Amino acid sequence: MKAIILAAGEGARLWPLTQNRPKVMIPVAGKPILQYVVEALRDSGITEIILVVGYRREKIMSYFEDGARLGVHISYVFQNKLLGTAHALFKAKGETDYEFVVLPGDNIIDSRVIKDLLQERKEGEWAVALSSSRNASKYGVVFMSGGRVKRIVEKPKENRSDIISTGIFLLTEEIFKYVDEAIMEREYALSTVIQSAIPGQIVRGVKTEGTWQDAVYPWDLLDLNATALRMIHGGIAGKKEPNVVIKGHVEIGEGTVLRSGTYIEGPVVIGSGCDIGPNAVIMPEVSVGDNCVIGPHTTLETSILMSNCYMGSHSYISHSVIGDGTVMESHFKNMVGSAIIRVDEIREVERIGAIVAEDCRFGAGVTLAPGVMIGTGSIIEGEKLVSGAVPENGRVL
Hints:
Strand content: 35-45%
Structural class: alpha/beta
CATH class of the largest domain: Alpha Beta
């Protein structure tokens, strides 16, 4: 059996983190989100994968190549106009077998989700993996009868059900007949295509107990990171100086040096080639990318620090996402609290630190207010208190 992964989208609601990379390539717990999907398919026995790519596709293709490094075979089809998920699936027409799995590339999943779906399949029937959510209105809400899907309502205004579609389907080639008709009518959402087929096609709902989690907004990445970190087993390939304390599940990459007095409490993932401490503190639910410097007496907790970042001494990061190549001079800190943030619309977030895109520069003593969003390439001079949003290449002088 083959799988089609839909990975062409930008992820605009994750601005500013997707300015230069697709959502599926945002790293959580040391790996791009898309890698979790590929590995889940492999571990469930599906190794023939078709990746539908579009926005910043070179980032995906250069990382995954033909898939051999991960034990799969990947081929690519291109969605040059990002018209929606049904249109993305249409681009893979003719590449599949009679029966195949189609799934989004921007969710954290494990192999059990795929196995649950495959175990429930019956000849000629379609199936969808179901989960539950207290915030079902962010997703496709599913209404069932006798194990069969009767209706899928995308992003309803009211939470009338907590059963949601994961967007992971087991389909047959018959789907392309409905996709063709939908595109002729300029309808590009796959959930709508599935709904249009329900009167004449059995779609079985399969409740999965496997891991499935999505990130819709930047602050959701912290929950996604925490979920991914629960999958790690730990292992230290780097070097520890005397008096380093490590507790819980912690993964440390090759060439990383943990300097004396550093304290790490897992789950934590630290990449390769990092220099940490002395006397740094890394608390649970932290991911650090490759080639990062974390200075003396600096603390991180519940955050994602991407690759090639520099944190000066006596700094503090909490509940934040920091993009590649960002430099924070000494005594940098962010505040954590509730914030009103404008993305697709105004959102109230109960607990958030800062969201910082790649290649930003912060002078010594900068403080970021809760919910601040900093665009790519921005420069903030020392001793500034920053709130709200700073655009791409912004300057706070």
